[in-house]
Design brief:
Strand content: 25-35%
CATH topology of the largest domain: Alpha-Beta Plaits
CATH architecture of the largest domain: 2-Layer Sandwich
Distance between the termini: 44 Å
Radius of gyration: 19 Å
Largest sheet: 6 strands, antiparallel
Order of helices and strands: EEHHHEEHEEHHEE
Number of helices: 6
Number of domains: 2
CATH class of the largest domain: Alpha Beta
Low-confidence stretches: none
Number of strands: 8
Amino acid sequence: MQYTRLGKSDLLVSRICMGCMGFGDPLTGQHRWTLDETESRHINLDASPYKAFVTQAPDMIDRKLKITLVPQFTGDKHIIPDERTINNLVVVQVKPEYQTEFKNIVLPEMAQSLNIEKGVLAMYAATDVDDPHRWYFYEIYASEEDYQLHRQTPHFRDYLKQTAHMSTRKTSIPVNPLFLRNKGGITAEIAPGG
């Protein structure tokens, strides 16, 4: 079997596996010949790259910091990243007495950003299961310009103003993913307690 490097990563993937990236829903996918999940599952599970990943993943994960998250909001559009795409991880430590109020302000702001800003491609929010006052936000913007436009919108500025006193720390971490793809169309505010 022949292998090729996946993007700029160290991951070697069989050419057969690369061809399997067309698996999905034949009714909504790019091709009618696309195999659905039921038909493609055994092919993926039997592929040597998947078997290699399963073998190596526990060791790689054990060397990393593990955080278990509770989803609070997920929303995205179809993303095909390029050299202009911006990915940010923002960590906010909320004062316990403001947890509910913060949530009631930030989640509608995220939904509004996705709905009215073309350059906002994805926004995900979750809280740390061991520290529910620590919020993690993963944001994807089409470009630096779109990110700066987002920061100037009335709804984002209102969010900053309303929540300025609610947090003890905010950290923004630029992220450069090795590989990022999605089908888009996820929008969900997670119900309380689940």
